[in-house]
Amino acid sequence: MNRKIGLMMRLIEIYRPYLFFEGVFDDMNTERLRNSVRENGSTSDANIFYFDSKWINWDYYLREIHLVGLVTYVFK
After folding, report:
1. Where does the Fatty acyl-CoA reductase C-terminal domain start and stop, copy by copy (predicted)?
2. How far apart are CA 21 and CA 59, in angstroms?
């Protein structure tokens, strides 16, 4: 039991900066690339390589994908 508590405390220390991080990420370079492909490339390329980080549901990703992966593959 003490070993599991120690592991959990270690993980809390490792993830502390991410749990309380309130930063905002800039995707301006991705936006420029997307615009460049749209203006200079073909429409099919623009559709194939389209990526807009605003559409990512980060709450869902962290809760349903990232944490589930940690529990499944790291905490086993």
Report:
1. 1-76
2. 14
Q: How far apart are CA 45 and CA 34, in angstroms?
A: 10
Residue 9 structure tokens:
């405390």
Condensed to tens digits (0 to 9), the pLDDT of residues 46-69 reads: 788 777 778 889 889 888 998 888
Pick from 62, 54, 65: nearest CA to 24: 54
Would you give the distance in Å from CA 53 to the centre of its chain?
9
d(CA 48, CA 57): 21
Tokens of 17: 């900066």
Long-range Cβ contact pairs of 61-69 (< 8 A, separation 24 or more)? none
Which amino acid is located at 26 in the chain?
Answer: D
